[in-house]
## 1
Amino acid sequence: MRYLVLVLPVFGCGFQSPVGAVPDATSDAPSALFCAADPRLRLCYSFDQESLPAALPDEGAAAVDAQLTNVTRITRGSGGAALLGTTSSIFVPMTPEVTNIQALEIWYRADAEPLNGGRSGLVDSNVSPLNISLFLYRQDPGHQLRCGLGAAVTSWDASLTVGSWTYLACVCEADSLKMYVEGVKVGETPGPCASGGAFVTDGFTIGSNNTGSPSIFDDRLVGAIDGVRLWNVPLTSTTICQTAGKPSC
């Protein structure tokens, strides 16, 4: 087995990649680029472009453009992020190139909260059982995260702060869904996720709930997103911890 030895690069979004000698047959070997040239990285948006076009090309392996409406680029670190408001939408059309998704990552900042019992969509492909979804719920006095991959959907309590940048990762490993906040696992639930998530007829939304229509969105995130990645292999807890910028979790 060949190995890649990585230095300590910084992603354009301002995040450090994992470091060390890791097998090149897993997703634990990202390069200095936030959206590395890797066939296992099926969908990736860094929002690092100097200006965000209305049709934003996927920086991952799938040939598909995200359709941006009322999305503003802001600077974060050495790169950029997408600022979203009450009329913003990011929609990715259906493509058979996004399939068997075993892990999703997102860096987001919520600038406003839904009412108690309400939710904000972070990513959503809408259709189950092949769903790829992640929602933030307000459940006073705290919050919940609900992730779905494949045929499994689970919610976990989480401590989240409005106005702060947060890294989330949801992973299917050995048919168990695992949720991580800032590199720390907050929950693990056995479930039928091994089939993986996929894009189906309804496509995929970022920063809102997918209603099934490419022109109708609700449960929008009011805040910003600094990067989204969908992998067709699981991510290890070590990789997630290091991606969160922590020496250990």
Note: The longest strand covers residues 131-139.
## 2
Amino acid sequence: MSPLGDAALPAWLEARGVLLAAAARVDPPDDGRGSGTRRVTGADGRSAIVKQGPGVVVQARYGEALRRLVPAQARVLAQSIHFDEPAQVLVLEDVRPAERLDALFDAGRAEPGLLFALGEFLGAVHRTTANEAPLLVPLFPSHELRRRHAEALFDLPFAPGELSIEPRLRALADDALAARGLRERIAELRTRFEASRESLVHGDPSARHVWVQRERPRLVGGETAHVGDPAFDLGLALAHVHVQRVRARDSALCDACEKALVDGYAPERAVLERARRYAGVEILRRALGPRRLLLLGTTARAERALALGTTLVAAE
């Protein structure tokens, strides 16, 4: 089946009992999600998110696994309304009205309790699915989207001359990567990321994927979910708290949010240490990647992010 175009979406949804096609409106979502995602709003104001492409199969399986294994925690996810696996179409609850966690950080309104709940969710999912990991592995095979995600995180930012960035920042990055065994640390984490089959992980619980609805977190995404290293999820969540420090946000609030996230997760020491290194890699990626100025605003902040990421990856 070919991808559904905007004109065909309302009738397709009506045929499946999701909403009435008459006067339905099809829009890109307002949160920057990919080109295969649409918000469809019916004449009565009800809306749904429609995602298309191979990644939705992984996202749908992630949700199904959580509803089966950790039903209480599965309520954190945007709920599935309809899934057509052969057509690669997933219809999800529209979590609006809600605010993204990164916007709340920008406004100084992020609450530590939200981070505690996110950590609690990730910890419960990881601990419970560890018992089912061998059975889950076949449901989450490696795929192109996950490969590109890993490449963007572990490879491209650190390849000499791969990315065109400001000369001073490039020189600082080259010095940092050449010293303190940083490239080797990053390579070790990549190997761990590829080889681990410990728990079911979301793959990208970054602040832009966390929405806050009635003072509780709702997690969207999941196209890169896989059975892997639980420290990876915790690390990416931690990275986006650390990024707020680089952006000169309230340091006391950042400290409280970091503590709440870790307390909610309650990781073993080895998991937390590895999570902090993954966080460092993510921060380095954000400092050196093509969207660094969109996130960080200035080259000076990118330089501060480089220093912070280096410290986290190199920590003993």
Note: The first strand starts at residue 25 and ends at 27.
## 3
Amino acid sequence: MDELRRILEEQSKEMESVIADTEKGGRRKTKGRLRITHNKGTVQYFLRTGPQDRSGKYISKKELNIACEIAQKDYLLKLRHIAERKQEDVSGIYTEKNEHVRSKSEKILADKLNLMHIPYHYEKPLHLHGYGIVHPDFTILNKRTRKEYYWEHLGMMDDASYSEKAVMKIETYEKNSIFPGDSLILTYETSVHPLDSRLIELIIHKYLL
């Protein structure tokens, strides 16, 4: 058991080192994401400024240094997310109620709900027409109004593929008459802007008490 604990601690420290290194490298001046296409055997690069910008601005050959910088930044961000997930898998994340959750931010949310005596279910299955079964991070009941809420924490919004999937999922909620600001609560996070615990309390007071 002592040997297993030592191995896990070493893996956790290794992941912490990777996270620290990628955080430094991921903070580059060029904003946006890279879209790469192939046209008649030629590789073309486009700078996308956000999830809704699906086409992007063409990057000319004279500006290839911009494409290289964005590609490096994207690589470092993905590497960091992988390292964070790996670190969480190694150490394990449990709430005060001894529930196993997927991230530190979900633990913060769960513990805050528990502390404020808000009844919830973690990843309770929900069928959305046109999408299938989803597992909202939290299904919550307002004891005073008896209204049910769904809380989704979108914790990797600086990852292009993740943010696109998040937008599609939110749209599917809306098509099922579950709207943000009504019965759908959304919080966001990036590697640069972590979850704000003060915001959590404001949201709980607004919707759940």
Note: The CA atoms of residues 108 and 166 lie 21 Å apart.
## 4
Amino acid sequence: MQTLLAILTNPVKSEDFIEYSLSMSADLGYNLHIMYVQNPALYTISPGTDTTTPYPVANELDVKMLEADRETALNYIKDIVANFKDGPKPKSLDVSAEAGTMSTVVNHFVSNNKAHMIVTEGDEESGFFSSEPDVINKTNCPGWIIPPKMSYRPFKKILYATDYNEADITTLKRLVALTKEFSPEITALHITDSKDFEEKTIQKGFKDVVAQETNYDKIHVKTEKESKSTEEKINDTAINIKADLIVLLKENKGFIEKIFTSSSTKKVIKKAKLPVLVYHE
């Protein structure tokens, strides 16, 4: 069975996120590993300490501070898990704490095949970006971003947003396999500034190819001209179809750059308040 890695940077403020991760992993049929990542900079790591490794070496005082915080955090997480009564829990659950930069620690964990997807909590201020958004871009596995203080609900209606990529069909197949227990309605939204895009997709039978390749009849292909900002188009469509989830493909470089760097995106996604799943090709 595959494992979902839930990443925490402040367990005391992450009760909702921990409970969300418990419910989601159980629903997806994944094992869950909850990891508290300790930022070495917060523990007066000695000058010259190498913090680029998963387990940086610190002096004796630093180690005592790290260990005390680790014990407190792990006990807090375990209490939340023990008192969780809002639904089934994943069949397998592990809790750990590691010191280091988030992207380094997570990559080390994923590269050793200990996790197959990661989930991070959105930032309070933006409602979208995690405290270290690079972890989604730098980790070679699908990554979820969950808005703060969000309650879990099954993914019944999904928006897959793209500006067209050869990997779209492969990604849709992976998405169908992941969410098949929910039997969701999936809207594949292609946003483009090309006037003949829709004509080309019709000529190539893109809709038929999607249906044939995914063997799933609940995918609807929708094309929108880029008449206004990409993030607003995604937000409007998500609201119109009453989406439970937004899905993006990281390899849509220009497209996803708009999503991850636009200042207005933070406001729009915060308003929509939806989880985001980012796939890698």
Note: Strands lie at 3-8, 31-38, 93-99, 117-121, 143-146, 157-162, 185-192, 219-225, 245-249, 276-279.
